[in-house]
Amino acid sequence: MFKNKSEKFQIMLLVIYFPISIFTIEMLAHLNFFSGFNLLLKNPFAFLLNTVLFATITYFFLALFKKQTLVFTLMTVISFLIGLGTKLKIDFRGVGLNILDFLVIQEAGGMINNLSTSFIITASIMVLILTILFVYIIGNMPKIMLSSKIRRNGILAFILVSLFLYFLGPYTVTIKSAGIKRKLYIEESGSLYYFAAQIKNTTSLKSPSEEEVTNVLRPIIEASPIKEDTIKPDILIIQSESFTDPTLIGMENFSADPLPYFHSLQKVTNSFGLSVPSFAGGTANTEFEVVTGMSTMFFPSDATVYANYMTKPTISIGSILKNNGYTASLLHPFHSTFYSRDNAYKLLGFDKFYGLEYLADFKSVDIDTRYWDSVDDYMTDSMLYQHVIKELEQETDESKFILTLSMQNHTPFVVPEGYEDRITYTGDGLTNDVAVRKYNAYLSSLKASDDALSDLISYLSKREKPTIVLFYGDHYPKVNQNGNAYIDLGLVSDLSSPENDYITHVTPAFIWSNYKDVGKSDRVIDGSLVSAKLLALTGVEVPNYMKINNYLESLNINSMTNAYIVMNNQFYNNVTEEYKQIYQLYSMINGDILGDDKFLETKEWFIKENENYINPK
Questions:
Q1: Which sign, positive or negative, has the C-alpha torsion 377, 381, 386, 387?
Q2: What's 210-568+583-594's CATH class?
Q3: Contact in structure between 483 and 285 (CB atoms under 8 Å)
């Protein structure tokens, strides 16, 4: 029936194939039929750029293979994969797809295993409709005849575009807004160009010379002794998923306090803000900074350090404490392969990693069954803390270090089944019905987390064994796609100025102990420095770089980023001498520990052969 179609109509199908492909990518990236139109209307140049890029790639494959139906079918499949892959990445990391994601396919598997039913149904309907559309378009296109010269030009065009993207791509998705450089939001650049512009995704790490370490770092080390303590407490670090303090916008905006226990705890312990590298996603990078004492600012912002860059043994708080006679365990109720954590924590020197595969086994621990509730397949904090208690109560000669990463307040926000203590937003700033529903669910789930924290601290306070706890949130929750909900809520006036960028990257934290005074603080600490603060309080022996981190923490470094530093609550952009001096120290520490040449450490803090590592599945 298609043979009777006019040549003009066939040519039209060929021409519209490319913009329709961009519409397809945007639809699937946001599971919204109108997303492509939003890009076209709000940023027509970006839409054109995405279309030209897609056409150039198609032209290249046609020049190589000369099989028209195969090439257009392949490009259609690629558009589906980029769209859906972007949607997965946005939901789990808050950022778009990049080339490094294809090196960690198992990460996608972990995401797919936790897709909601609504996601699967909506995506399936869209893919079915789009497949029918593309079968019709491809089947009715005119036959394209390419001469040898045109094929050569196609290959040349692809090479030129690739070189442009490799050398200049990262700069084209970066803008300077209100004094701070930031990446374009994926809604601004388009999903395909956002992906392609990051072909070159390298680190800015450079190992310092032995002379630099001797002249710059050694004097700081010698002037920064750590007071050691004979008491070896059990140490517990809790990274709480999306834990923030909503009442920063005013208690009057809520039906009740969502964090009554946490607020009472702030008054009696060392409570402070933690500056984290992530916003509305990116759990593992906050985790990396706290666990290693290193900064993620030397890595691409969209990359996950564990999954993309960790290939050799690295010092961590786990390996440091093992050198002090501790056992080091990780409890995380999610798939152990996600973000390549199973491999990363072996390289970080931990003894045991209990992932979801173990924790979800009812027979693995003798536990009160009322704690086996879950939140949309995510384990509740209450249940997770019961596992922590079981681990603490294991009889061993060594003191214990336990790192716990929670999942309860991960998107999609769902109130624990049977939980009746609901909290609602009563303000008038946030008006979008979907965002309000999500935020209310988050608030109630947060209150359940607060209850669980109260139970845990109550247990620990009665414990005879000296115990010290570091608790912090990993990032702000993703209430809506681009973070504008926090403007509506009144937390910030924009998301681009350094001051507001800083606000949206500070989460609540505290250090608590059942055996000693841990002091009091109400300031903000850079995430890469908090482990040095914790270790100094415990009085264990630490490597040299942790002494330098402790020195930096004493300088009141509130936040360190590629764009600015906040020190003593003062902002300095990256061209100031204040910034350059501190950046040099950060760069030398990270370059030495994570690089190939190591002049900073005189003791073997790296666990090179971690043969006894346990990862039960």
A1: positive
A2: alpha beta
A3: no
